Amino acid sequence: MNKWLRRTAIFLGVMIPLSGLIAYLVVDNALARMYGETTPLAKPQLGAESPDKYLLTNVQVLSADGRGFESDLSVLIADGTIESIGHAQTFGNSIPRVDGGGQYLVPGLTDSHVHLWRSRNDLLLYLANGVTQVREMHAQPHHLNWRETLSAGALGPDLYLVAAQLATYPFWEGLWRTFTTERQVVGSRSATRARIPALIAQGYDAIKASSFLSREHYLTASDAISDSQIPLVGHLPLEANLADLWSSNQRELAHVEELVKALAREIGGYTGAKQNEFLAHVRARRQAVAKQLRARDIAVTTTIALVHSFAGQKLDLQSALAQVEFNYVNPGVARGQAMGWLPGVNPYQVPASRKVGDWQRRYADYWDTYAKAHVLMLEALYAEGVMLLAGTDASVPVMVPGFSMHSELLALQAAGLSPTDVLAAATRSPGHWMNWNTGKIAVGYRANLILLRDNPLEDIAATASLESVIIRGRFLTRQDLDALLLAVEHANRAAD
Ligand SMILES: [Zn+2]
């Protein structure tokens, strides 16, 4: 080999891996930023910790069936568990007491559809809003680590971790998406079959199907999971139809939207010109669909507030952002390229090229009809007694972690659910579905509780009158909750 050839070979041999490494580091850094990892950790200044064992006195306790309150009770909390419930005088005077001030004691709320990404401060936002359990719908190995730190005393809600969604893509796109969106990309039946026990072994609580899982691999996953202990949840893949769902082992749908989209596919897709046909089809089919779900014991997560936000995000994103608690949104996530919130990166905004003619009227009509279809479907699910799990898709724009839970509960009440049933969708039902001893105030249940000034069984808006949160037994006062919020706000500002 002559001298020049050898030099060129050496040069390329160094430069190609080096530029690969640089490209990797640049992308990795951008990912850390857009998933909220580079925002400083919040450092809240909290009051003294409550004792391991104390008597919470003078509270109105939500009955075990969730349908009423019993007044002037005391709850003995020890080592993170409800040890006893009764009248104060029966407990003697040796146990430290916390006065509940006659307020309403209800189970801590569960948001059954959240995305934590790498934004650890979100854990504090959930607690500050009375959300003591979340179901993470795109869990990564670092969330398994977070769960360890929580059980060792860190602050945050209990985490139910659904493994990152299974998806099918062409080879190169699959590699890219595995890296950037951390999806579980499966390219063959055998890979799908092998992935499920691997995820279970890592410690995840459920397996998730994505919209982009092929029908073939969806049916394979469903089959592979039939004899495992953990559920298949999530989306109904776009290639699949409701008949596939009925024959699957799927135990939950991550959105009412999955049903609405499946019904739209039955009429060849929903376009603006087909608004009346679409709504008529939803009306004609909804009861039969709800009956099937009920018969198969498939739960449905609501995410209705998100659907209601679409029209606003399409038409006037700045106003939509101004209506939510944007100060608490992780700035990295808000500016991120994947699921960013701000103009320019928001996935819901209308591109400038489409803003022609009477686009505002067309978009408003289309998305209002879409939202109507969701309420129609939800009414049928409710009427047929399908298990509803209140969930928000938190961290997806414009669902602010923790705060969005209250918007969802209001949206469910506005859609016709009684306050009692809305509260159940955020407490008893998710507790039952996850097979956790949460969501009920009963002996042996986790002491994950909230104190409200107003009665949520009269109007679910009462969840906004939050005064205290008890997480794994630790009592957080209103001042503590405000300190959590302030610390997150400061951290977000420091990230700028
Ligand atoms: Zn989601």
Give your account of this protein's structure.
The chain has 496 residues and is an alpha/beta fold. 43% of the residues lie in helices and 17% in strands. Strands 1, 2, 3, 4, 5, 16, 17 and 18 form an 8-stranded mixed β-sheet that branches. Strands 6-7-8 form a 3-stranded parallel β-sheet, with helices on both faces. The chain has a 3-stranded parallel β-sheet with strand order 13-14-15. Strand 9, helix 4 (171-180) and strand 10 (184-185) form a beta-alpha-beta unit. Residues 113, 115, 137, 393, 396 line the site of zinc ion (ZN).
Summarize the structure.
43% of the residues lie in helices and 17% in strands.
SSE-based structural type: alpha/beta
Helix content range of the residues, please? 40-55%
Number of helices: 17
Using the coordinates shown, work out and report the CATH topology of the domain at 118-441: TIM Barrel
The general outline is: globular
Gyration radius (Cα, Å) is: 24 Å
The total count of strands amounts to 18
**CATH architecture assignment of the domain at 118-441:** Alpha-Beta Barrel
Q: Cofactors and ligands present? A: zinc ion
* CATH 4th-level superfamily of the domain at 118-441: Metal-dependent hydrolases
Integer average pLDDT: 94
Please, what is the oligomeric state? single chain
Please describe the biggest sheet, giving its number of strands, its sense, and whether it closes into a barrel: 8 strands, mixed
Uncertain segments of ≥5 residues (pLDDT<50)? none
Top-tier CATH class of the domain at 118-441: Alpha Beta
Proportion of residues in extended strands: 15-25%
Instruction: Report, as a whole number of angstroms, the end-to-end distance.
Output: 55 Å
